[in-house]
Design goal:
The chain is mostly helical. It folds into three domains: 4-62, no CATH class; 65-125; 131-215, no CATH class. It has eight helices and two strands; from the N terminus they run H-H-H-H-H-H-E-E-H-H. The chain has helices spanning 4-9, 30-38, 44-53, 62-98, 106-125, 131-147, 183-190, 194-228, and strands at 160-163, 166-169. The protein has a two-stranded antiparallel ribbon with strand order 1-2. Strand 1 (160-163) and strand 2 (166-169) form a beta hairpin. The longest helix is centred in the middle third of the chain and has 37 residues, at 62-98. Bound molecules: zinc ion (ZN). Zinc ion is lined by residues 152, 154-155, 159, 170, 172-173, 177.
């Protein structure tokens, strides 16, 4: 299978001969590779894909890339803040309805309790207010984790294993080729202790990592499709 990341890395100046097939890689010239890249839609995925594997080909600097991720994170953060504000209003309305009469009915009490529970759940899902200070470290850690994934020890990242005479999905990584990075390692990467990471940053980091990794994966797949086309 063609690894688009290794192909793209051939465009780096340190790659001595990129027009020579090696290790089962197809014989592709730099022009072929650049032409395939041109079919990958512009956007976050393409920028991350280039920033990690062919820095000279990235249109955005690392700083601009951080800015792009920041605006995507900002959209999600704003959505959370709006959902929280709506949950507060729902609770306020439930109280107001209950306050119209002289006594609160069981149904009104249930509505108040449900709205209060929904508000608490919303609060727990909101990212911390200190996010702007931590964001560069979170994004940098996510990019590094994508660039240096925790390869599965059983299949070495190939996602498949040979059982008998059959090529099957690797059972250890469930066909992903990589294993999740530990909380301890992620905490160290973003500069907090492990319990703070678990309590405060795990959801937020997970969201940023998935968003950036999915975009990069989509760009890599786009390049594979262009090379096949
Ligand atoms: Zn595996």
């Amino acid at each position: 299978m063609t690894d688009p990341r290794r192909l793209l890395a051939r465009l780096n100046p340190t790659a001595v001969r990129y027009d020579v097939g090696r290790g089962g890689m197809p014989d592709l010239t730099a022009q072929d590779i650049a032409a395939a890249l041109a079919f990958v839609p512009a956007g976050l995925g393409r920028e991350v894909f280039c920033a990690l594997w062919w820095p000279d080909g990235a249109r955005l600097s690392r700083r601009d890339l951080l800015g792009k991720v920041t605006s995507i994170v900002g959209e999600e953060w704003r959505r959370q803040a709006q959902a929280l504000a709506e949950a507060r209003i729902d609770l306020g309305i439930a109280h107001a309805i209950a306050g119209w009469g002289h006594h609160t009915s069981p149904e009104q009490r249930r509505n108040i309790d449900a709205a209060a529970r929904a508000l608490e759940a919303r609060k727990r899902r909101c990212w911390p207010s200190t996010l702007p200070d931590r964001l560069p470290a979170l994004v940098t850690a996510a990019l590094e984790e994508i660039a240096m994934p925790n390869l599965c020890a059983q299949c070495g990242g190939r996602a498949q294993a040979i059982v008998g005479a059959l090529l099957v999905k690797c059972s250890m990584c469930d066909g992903r080729g990589t294993l999740p990075v530990s909380d301890r390692k992620r905490a160290r990467a973003i500069g907090v202790d492990e319990s703070t990471y678990r309590e405060t940053w795990r959801d937020c980091y997970g969201w940023i990592y998935r968003t950036v990794a999915d975009a990069e994966q989509e760009a890599a797949q786009g390049m594979v499709s262009a090379l096949r086309g």
